[in-house]
Structures are given as C-alpha cells and as structure tokens.
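Sequence design from tokenized structure. All designs in this work follow the same two-part layout: the structure record, then the generated sequence. An example of the structure record is given first.
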C-alpha cells in the first residue's frame, strides 16, 4: 500500500512537471521574434517637403522602407540652401539629420569640421561618378559628402526657329559657328539669337564662368588658394560674352536673370538659352508650344556650370546613428534609387511627372535611353569636365560680395574688364587671407 501511494504521488508530480514545461514551451513559442530596431533619422532636403519635389523624394524614402533589413526609419523634412539656417541645424547636439547640401557647402562645412568623414565605408563608390564631381566632396583627403542629384547647364534651342533659319545644330562646333548661327536667326526669323544674363545675381557668375573656363582661364588654384582670374583668357572670355554675343541677346539683358531668359525662351522671343533640366521641362509644362533640342556645351568648346547636390552627415551625429545614416545614403546612390529620380515631380495642372534634376551615376545612360529619357543624357555628360562656380570655400564670399556686382558693372559698360579683374583679384586675395590666416600677417 505504501509503495502504491509513493508511486502515485511521484506520478502526479511528474505529470505536473510535464504540464508546466508544456505551458512554458507553448508560451515561449508564442512570443514573436523581435525585429531589429531602426534608428529614427531625418532627411533634410533643399526644397519644401510638401512640394512636388518633396513628394518625389518621399517616394524614394518609401521604397527604402520596404526592405525590412533597413537600419533607419527616415522622416523627410523640408529645408533650403540658406547658409545661416543650415549652420544652426548642423551644430545640434546628438544630431539625427542627414543633410542635402550644395557642393559649395560641402567645401565650407567640411573645412570647418562640421561634417563627418565618410571614409573608409564609402570609398568603394568613387568609380560610379565622374572624378570631377566626386572630388567636390573632398577636403584634405577626407570625404564629407556623396553625389546624389544635380545637373549641368546645356544649350537649349527652339527646333522650329533653327529650321526656319536653316541651321543644323550639329554644325555648331565652336563659338564662331555659334555666333554665325545667331546672326542667321536674326536675319531669317523675328526672334533674337540668345538669352544672356547680366544682373547682379547668382546667375551672372556661373553663366560667365562657363566662358572663362572654356577659353582656358580659371578663377583660383584649388590647392594653394592663389587667385588666377586676372589672365588674358579671362579678358577674352568676358569680352566675347559681352561684345560678341551681347548684340544678339534680348533687350536689357544686362539687367536680367536666368528666370527672365526662360520667359523669353518660352515666348519664342529667343532661339537659344543656357539652362539646366528645368529649361526643358518648363516648355513641357506649358503645353509644349515648340520642340526643344539640347546641345552639351562641350560641343561648343565651353565647360558647363554644374549644380550637384550632395548628401552628408553632421559631425554631431552619434556613431550608432552614423551607421544607420550610411545605410540610407548607400541606398540613395544605388541604381534603384538613382533611376527613381527620373520619375520626377508631379504636376497636378498637367497630371504628369517632370524630372527636376538628373541622377549623378554615370552608369545610368543606357537606363535613361531605354526609358525614353535620352534628351536628359547631356545634362549628365556635362558633369565630366565642368565649370566650377565656387572652387574653394572662400570664393563663395568673393562671389557674393564682389564678383556678381563687378560683372554687372562690366556688362553695363560702367567698368572696364581690366579694372574689374584687378579690383576683384585684390579683394579676393584679402578675403582668402583673412579666412585662412586671420586679420594679422
């Protein structure tokens, strides 16, 4: 009897133990495996987040989020290119924001130690971009940005006006043949030849620089900071722009900007204009009253102004967030994300999409052609051998304080080219000296 009770008691305990283990096992199996926690980061662009461009970027972010293995959860925030506002945003402690910056800001902020070095992780992507564009992210051998989107300036033309004047675009191979074409336009049509800018504005700087670089001149030595703009090639370039092309430009061009030129081009008052991608899409958005052709400036012997936008990480970001940020940045320069750029921004007025920039990867030419974006290829090709409007960080200050105003005075005839270049050189040397060495010697 006693043995029977012991066995019965032991059996009961075993049953209870087994039941408890089954319950615990069942509960354990019911707990889902935890997913990796994504770092919550912002992506600050240079446009309003609610704009057509913001919506286009949001679509790219949404594609990034579709992969469950992503390391970051990205929130899009609007921004601009204002230097003061950007500076305030960059210095925030424990920064959670990935920034889109114009290339000239990369040079400035990288030089000031406000951006994170992206090497060695990002060095492998160098061959995906033109060397001239990749190098705009480098300060003292440190990589402070990655090329994302941009453009180069091309020569746009009205196909109907050129046909009326009997001009074959292929025949435009240098400045002299271009000048002859302008004369034919004015002889055979009611339009002026070309849109030029001369107002005190950002546009006059990059516009004229295309001729300075194309004629063999330069602004400054990027390594030493030596000012080199006061050279015979520069005098020749500015004189050609003003005196050879000026007579074929729209009335009052000396006081007009690129926006004014676009309006003249849209109204078919001029046959040619120097513009980026938006010059092409502007005509499309307005009902395509005429067909637009695109000529890379290299065909004419000029070097195209470029406007690459870079993606960067502030130096105030934690190492953990930096790793997540690099994951997102790697996606942004992937073939998939770069191709999505060409979908463009949505226009509710026309219920269609228009590209506003082009991808910067040079291995996407075939993709663009296959997807009927062949006319946009020249806007990428011009990045290969560009005109650089701000070759060193200090030149941005030179540009805004002295260069734009001086060029305007030259275009209006109130200042000789030689005097302008002498004054500019003196002022530029002082700005560079004060920036690099302070007020003292």
């Amino acid at each position: 009897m006693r043995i029977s009770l012991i066995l019965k008691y032991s059996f009961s305990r075993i049953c209870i133990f087994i039941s408890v283990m089954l319950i615990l096992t069942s509960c354990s199996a019911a707990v889902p495996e935890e997913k990796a926690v994504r770092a919550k980061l912002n992506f600050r662009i240079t446009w309003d987040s609610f704009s057509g461009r913001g919506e286009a970027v949001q679509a790219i972010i949404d594609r990034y989020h579709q992969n469950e293995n992503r390391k970051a959860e990205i929130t899009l925030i609007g921004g601009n290119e204002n230097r003061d506002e950007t500076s305030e945003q960059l210095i925030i402690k424990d920064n959670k924001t990935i920034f889109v910056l114009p290339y000239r800001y990369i040079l400035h902020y990288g030089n000031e130690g406000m951006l994170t070095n992206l090497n060695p992780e990002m060095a492998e992507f160098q061959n995906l971009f033109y060397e001239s564009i990749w190098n705009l992210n480098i300060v003292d051998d440190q990589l402070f940005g990655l090329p994302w989107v941009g453009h180069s300036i091309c020569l746009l033309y009205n196909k109907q006006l050129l046909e009326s004047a009997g001009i074959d675009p292929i025949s435009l191979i240098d400045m002299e043949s271009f000048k002859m074409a302008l004369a034919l336009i004015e002889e055979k049509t009611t339009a002026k030849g070309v849109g030029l800018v001369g107002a005190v504005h950002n546009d006059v700087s990059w516009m004229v620089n295309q001729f300075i670089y194309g004629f063999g001149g330069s602004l400054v030595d990027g390594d030493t900071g030596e000012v080199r703009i006061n050279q015979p090639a520069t005098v020749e370039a500015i004189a050609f722009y003003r005196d050879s092309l000026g007579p074929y430009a729209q009335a009052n061009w000396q006081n007009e900007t690129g926006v004014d030129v676009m309006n003249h081009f849209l109204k078919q008052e001029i046959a040619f204009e120097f513009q980026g991608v938006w010059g092409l899409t502007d005509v499309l958005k307005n009902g395509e009253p005429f067909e637009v052709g695109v000529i890379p400036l290299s065909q004419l012997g000029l070097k195209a102004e470029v406007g690459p936008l870079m993606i960067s990480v502030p130096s105030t970001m934690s190492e953990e967030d930096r790793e997540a940020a690099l994951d997102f940045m790697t996606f942004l320069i992937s073939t998939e994300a770069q191709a999505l750029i060409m979908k463009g921004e949505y226009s509710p007025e026309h219920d269609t999409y228009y590209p506003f920039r082009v991808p910067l990867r040079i291995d996407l030419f075939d993709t663009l052609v296959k997807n009927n974006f062949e006319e946009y290829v020249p806007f990428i090709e011009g990045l290969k051998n560009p005109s650089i409007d701000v070759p060193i960080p200090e030149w941005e200050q030179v540009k805004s304080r002295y260069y734009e105003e001086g060029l305007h005075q030259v275009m209006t005839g109130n200042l000789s080219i030689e005097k302008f270049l002498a004054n500019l050189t003196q002022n530029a040397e002082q700005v560079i000296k004060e920036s690099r060495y302070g007020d003292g010697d």
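Residues 84 and 90 are 10 Å apart (CA to CA). We note this feature because it recurs in several other targets discussed in the main text.
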